[in-house]
Design brief:
serine acetyltransferase, domain 1; two-stranded antiparallel ribbon; 2 strands; 52% helix
Length: 212
């Protein structure tokens, strides 16, 4: 009788362990709903006409998958349990769009970022080329203001007078996307921020964190 009781207790213990492992600890699934269907959201890659994550679809950009020569700095964990990736997306969103992402945007951008090998510069390019950035910061602004804003969002500094003069004509002739591509492919950006750092580690007053 004692042996039977001990056996039953062992089976119950194993049952509850398996229940906890496979049921209680299941991750909360991120939505697969395209962010473009959410009011004010960022459009998914196929709908972006001013550049996509990784620079694909834009012949003027040198930001492409061939540049991923370093392994990702994102830990090899599931997309559902990656606080580092979440922080990087928040920093990039604050740097480029000057606000924290909504829950829906995080649900879309975090898996997108991880599935794209965790390249921070590609994420910056994606956000700077988004419809949200174009409408909020470029569409109705004078050219000089556009140049200053893009420098702030991508380089985390103001342009010099020489740079302002140089890039005014670039934006007037080829549009804001040409300046975005130019800065992200510049020696300064690659030397200071490279592939894996967010400029200025985000934005003070929004979300800023030194991770590396």
């Amino acid at each position: 009788m004692a042996m039977l009781t001990k056996l039953l207790k062992t089976k119950l213990f194993l049952f509850f362990m398996l229940f906890n492992l496979f049921i209680l600890n299941l991750p909360i699934a991120y939505t697969t709903e395209p962010i473009g269907t959410i009011e004010g959201g960022i459009r998914p890659i196929p709908e972006i006409t001013r550049g996509a994550l990784g620079g694909e679809g834009n012949s003027n950009s040198n930001i492409n998958r061939d540049e991923r020569i370093r392994p990702s700095t994102i830990p090899n964990t599931t997309v559902f349990h990656n606080p580092l990736a979440v922080d990087i997306v928040k920093m990039a969103h604050c740097r480029v769009l000057e606000k924290l992402p909504s829950v829906e945007e995080l649900n879309y951008l975090v898996p997108l970022f991880i599935n794209n090998n965790g390249i921070a510069r590609d994420l910056i390019h994606f956000l700077a080329s988004s419809e949200r950035h174009y409408k909020d910061y470029i569409l109705t602004r004078p050219t000089e203001t556009i140049v200053a804003i893009i420098f702030d969002h991508l380089m985390a500094r103001n342009p010099t007078s020489t740079e302002m003069f140089k890039y005014l004509s670039l934006v007037q002739m080829n549009g804001a996307q040409a300046l975005i591509n130019e800065l992200l492919n510049s020696p300064e950006y690659n030397q200071v921020w490279g592939l894996n750092l967010i400029p200025a580690h985000g934005r003070s007053g929004c979300f800023s964190r030194v991770l590396f």
